[in-house]
Amino acid sequence: MEPVRTCIGCRSRAPRSSLLRVVTQNSHVIADDAAVLPGRGAWLHPSLECYRLAVRRRAFGRALRIRGEVDTSNVENRLNGAVITNE
């Protein structure tokens, strides 16, 4: 039986394989495609609709237990299909 997680955007439960794990690194929220990065993670459907719900509900800060401003632009770019390079 596959593990089930809850999407922080729409709050519906889904199999882990159908969700995108996100983690925080240096106050930036990044997508963890392989689900292996260290730290507290949160789960999100890989859709802009769920992303926007999570931003509107301020779910990233609560789920990842971070205070202050949360930069989620990396996740938004990933969902938009943009290629992100670390230069």
The strands making up the biggest β-sheet line up spatially as 4-3-5
Radius of gyration: 12 Å
**SSE pattern:** EEEEEHHH
Shape by Cα distribution = globular
Please, how many helices?
A: 3
Record field, number of beta strands:
5
The pLDDT mean sits at 92
Helix proportion range? 25-40%
Structural class: alpha+beta
Give the DSSP E fraction (strand runs of 2 or more residues): 15-25%
Describe the biggest sheet? 3 strands, antiparallel
Q: Unreliable runs, pLDDT <50, ≥5 residues?
A: none
Gap from first CA to last CA:
40 Å
How does this model look, in words?
- The protein has 87 residues and is α+β, with helices and mostly antiparallel strands.
- The protein is 26% helix and 24% strand.
- It contains three helices and five strands.
- It has a three-stranded antiparallel sheet.
Topology at a glance:
Layout: E1 4-6, E2 13-15, E3 20-25, E4 28-32, E5 41-44, H1 48-56, H2 59-64, H3 73-80
Antiparallel strand pairs: 1-2, 3-4, 3-5
Key structural traits:
globular, 24% strand, alpha+beta, 3 helices, two-stranded antiparallel ribbon, 3-stranded antiparallel beta sheet, 5 strands, 87 residues
Short description:
With 87 residues, this protein is of the alpha+beta class.
